[in-house]
Sulfur carrier protein FdhD (Rubricella aquisinus), 262 residues
Amino acid sequence: MIFPTHTVLPTDQGARAVPEEVPVALSYGGTTHAVMMATPADLEDFAVGFTLYEGIATRDEIEEITIQPVPDGIDLQIRLTEGAGDSLRDRHRRMAGPVGCGLCGVESIEQAMRAAPAVTADLTLCDANIRRGLEALWRHQRLHEETHAVHAAGLWLPGQGIVAVREDVGRHNALDKLAGFAARQGFAAGAVFITSRISVEMVQKAAVMGAPVLVAVSAPTALAVRMAEAAGVTLVARARGDRFETYTYQHRITRGSSTDVA
């Protein structure tokens, strides 16, 4: 099912493309668990990535995803295996996630500050990998090229470079979509490239993906750096061309090397 991702509107300077932003409900067993404001694209990936990050179920416990248009939005109806569905009902909660805040709706400080899983995969990137990864990330942002108003997350694999990019008006949603794509395709852990700042939740999401390296064009928060240190994730930030800063686990990043420049 295809939904429009952008609309062309008139302005005093001429027609401009603007991204669509719609309420997307994520429902399990007929009950809405969350409503996120999102770009209506790659919705199956979004459903899987959100489910994994929230710890609701594993990929194998997701039996079916149905995309259902509803008045003023979209309902992603996710059917889980019986055991996973029972576990969700035991801890069911509701939350709403506006574009700018992926933690809105959590009910306690402990939920917001849950420990990220330890990343066991290892990976080494050189400065050429980072430069070319960023170049590929920009090239594959088709919706951003039209609207200049969405974020992107890309998956980089050794010897292949950027193999997938997902876009959304929300940076958290873009990374959920990428995580869902990687899980559905069975990709091994790689580096994640993002177009936004590095907040603590972006680190948590990367760790859930098992990504040992997170590269961003903007800066991290102090809490994100501490979370990355605890989870074993290498943070590369302020990445523009050949210039970048490495905040944690610097041994994974080599400068002046070009042994693998995918």
